[in-house]
Amino acid sequence: MNGLLKKFKLIALIFLAISCVRGMPKPALWNGVTPIGEILREPKAWEGKNVKILAYYRWFDIFGEAGSGPPVTRSDVAFADITGAIYATRWENPGLSPQDTDRLFLLEAEVRVNPNGLPYLEVRRTQEVDGLPKGVVLRARLTGGVAGFSREILLAEDGTALYLDRKLNQHARAKVEAKAVEEALRQIRPLLGQELGKPVPDGFTYTIYAWEGDKIRTLTLHAESAPENVKPLREFLNELFFQTFQQGG
Hints:
The protein has 249 residues and is α+β, with helices and mostly antiparallel strands. The chain has 2 domains: 2-25 and 133-248, Mago nashi protein; 28-129, CATH 2.40.50.200. The chain is built from 5 helices and 12 strands. The strands form 2 sheets. The protein has a 7-stranded mixed β-sheet, covered by helices on one side. Strand 8 and strand 9 form a beta hairpin. The longest helix has 18 residues, at 231-248. The radius of gyration is 19 Å and the shape is globular. The two termini are 15 Å apart.
């Protein structure tokens, strides 16, 4: 993805005079959280341990991220972060539906492993929170168009990317340059809290979520009517969605 970094050299010239916070976020919400991928890699090593998981509710693995059926009962539900997905049992569903798969929860649970070696969480406590999963520094959502697109990308600071097509219920994993992620954050941060352009019929809208300290702030970018000076950013986002899907798919 060398093209992504090259595009951001143009953006850097545009925003050179804008002061912004440097470095990657380290929000307090991430303290003590275990990435799901670590449990998936060594289920037996985690069996019986109490963990904190910060992950999105995924109904009955609606995007296929877990890649298997429920490990204990048919009512088990899935949770996912950028590193993987895992089922949870003994979870009291507060009435969530397939439309709620972007809601983030902090789970306190014990890791269990079923007879087939599949790990799962036995939930003790849950709390819905506002934020991004551990390691995720940027979330971008693309909606609109004649076809009614609803696509999303989560980016970690090391370049790990998770692509979701919320209309087709598909996911893909990919890798981008870590430097491109860092540069993206550097250019997006001064724009957080703004809405650039206005909605147009059948137009595309990017909604970008990023950390500012311990809080999440958003940038809304209406692609067709956004100011000319953010055109390189819009092109970067277009290429990011396209290449991440192509690489992961």
